[in-house]
């Protein structure tokens, strides 16, 4: 009898259930009746606290198109994993103990960057671990694409599309704030796909005067409206010169609810134009996975099962140049896949007149 544990950790995204289904179905196929799968509840929290249950094959049916995660998820900050406060359990030891208690052959972990740091830690501690890269941010090092990204892209693009019609009617300037954490993949792609006029990314610090100049030029050219796709992680040129500590303090002192509102405020002060702000927020992570994500999640799931069959543990399944390949967790952990400022996508955007506020 083979026993596997599966958990989803960190922020949810579309395609998690499709990936869970993919890996479970492939494992049941390969091992016939000789397999038990334990669903661990709410990510690492369930592994720490020993909250899990034996799943039935039918539990993995009918979930391909379902958003969120049937296993639940939670954020367990990596920096606290090693901290054992007085009177508290040692989380790493607790996770190892529950892995042993379940008598697992392998733990399958679906997660983003923070999750991968902990997965690598568990692998270093001697647990058999295989991971799948999920996140709408597409910021996991080692894979060309994460599942969740394309579904969120569809939603964010749709938001910009909808803003277009009202912006055109009223002749207004709109800012759409797009998720992506500290990287700009989602705002970049949604901005281009949605036809934004200005895109602000964390990778290209913005100069507010340059944005104001673009807007004035558009006015002069008779354009009735302008749309700015602003990354939630966008930073100004001045902020880019601050130390980490100074940056944190500056952001803590910010009076606006988010970066989009601050940019709006700054532009209003320079141009006198009234700006409207739209923040779709977690909407971008919700709902059904798009066809691309169902496909990628299923491919990742099947590939993870293949790695398990081969006892090729300590790896993340990754998409590279169209193929699914294993990437060692030690290479993935602690790195961030940012948008290269000279990438082809940014060049294409510049070629058609989109500006980046630099
Ligand atoms: O990592 C996915 C993500 O949606 C980011 O884009 C965003 O910065 C963050 O999670 C939001 O986190 P939370 O769900 O904890 O508010």
UniProtKB/TrEMBL annotation:
Q: Which residues bind substrate?
A: 135-137, 172, 179-181, 232, 276, 282-285
Binding-site residues for Mg(2+), renumbered to this chain:
113
Single GO term (MF): 6-phosphofructokinase activity
Q: Which residues bind ATP?
A: 11, 75-76, 112-115
**Record keyword Nucleotide-binding present:** yes
Q: Which reaction does it catalyse?
A: beta-D-fructose 6-phosphate + ATP = beta-D-fructose 1,6-bisphosphate + ADP + H(+)
Q: Which UniProt keywords apply?
A: ATP-binding, Cytoplasm, Glycolysis, Kinase, Magnesium, Metal-binding, Nucleotide-binding, Transferase
Any one annotated GO CC term: 6-phosphofructokinase complex
| Gene Ontology biological-process entries | canonical glycolysis; fructose 1,6-bisphosphate metabolic process; fructose 6-phosphate metabolic process
Transmembrane stretches in the record are none
What is annotated as the active site? 137
Classification via SUPFAM superfamilies: Phosphofructokinase
Localization per record: Cytoplasm
* Domain of life assignment: Bacteria
Q: Which residues form the Phosphofructokinase domain?
A: 3-308
Q: Tell me, what does this protein do in biology? A: Catalyzes the phosphorylation of D-fructose 6-phosphate to fructose 1,6-bisphosphate by ATP, the first committing step of glycolysis.
Kindly provide the name given to this protein in its UniProt entry.
Answer: ATP-dependent 6-phosphofructokinase
* UniProt source species: Hydrogeniiclostridium mannosilyticum
In the UniProt record, what gene is named as encoding this protein?
Answer: pfkA
């Amino acid at each position: 009898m083979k026993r596997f544990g599966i958990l989803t950790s960190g922020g949810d995204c579309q395609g998690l259930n499709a990936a869970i289904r993919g890996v479970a179905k492939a494992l049941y196929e390969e091992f016939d009746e000789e397999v038990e799968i334990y669903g661990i509840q709410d990510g690492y929290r369930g592994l720490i606290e020993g909250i899990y249950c034996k799943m039935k094959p039918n539990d993995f049916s009918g979930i391909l198109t379902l958003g969120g995660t049937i296993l639940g998820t939670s954020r367990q900050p990596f920096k606290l994993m090693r901290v054992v406060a007085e009177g508290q359990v040692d989380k790493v030891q607790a996770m190892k103990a529950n892995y042993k208690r379940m008598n697992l052959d392998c733990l399958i972990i679906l997660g983003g960057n923070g999750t991968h740091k902990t997965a690598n830690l568990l692998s270093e501690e001697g647990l058999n671990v295989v991971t799948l890269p999920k996140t709408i941010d597409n910021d996991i090092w080692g894979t060309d694409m994460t599942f969740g990204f394309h579904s969120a892209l569809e939603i964010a693009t749709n938001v910009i599309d909808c803003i277009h019609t009202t912006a055109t009617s009223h002749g207004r300037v709109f800012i759409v704030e797009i998720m992506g954490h500290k990287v700009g993949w989602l705002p970049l792609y949604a901005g281009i796909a949605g036809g934004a006029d200005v895109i602000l990314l964390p990778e290209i610090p913005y100069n507010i005067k340059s944005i104001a100049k673009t807007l004035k030029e558009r006015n002069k050219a008779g354009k009735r409206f302008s749309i700015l796709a602003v990354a939630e992680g966008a930073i100004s040129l001045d902020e880019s010169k601050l130390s980490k500590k100074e940056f944190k303090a500056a952001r803590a002192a910010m009076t606006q609810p988010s970066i989009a509102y601050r940019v709006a405020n700054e532009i209003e002060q320079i141009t006198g134009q009234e700006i409207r702000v739209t923040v779709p927020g977690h909407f971008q992570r919700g709902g059904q996975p798009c066809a691309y994500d169902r496909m990628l999640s299923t491919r990742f799931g099947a590939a993870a099962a293949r790695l398990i069959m081969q006892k090729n543990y300590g790896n993340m399944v990754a998409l590279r140049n169209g193929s699914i390949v294993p990437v060692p967790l030690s290479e993935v952990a602690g790195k961030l896949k940012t948008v290269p400022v000279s990438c082809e996508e940014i060049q294409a955007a510049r070629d058609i007149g989109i500006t980046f506020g630099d």
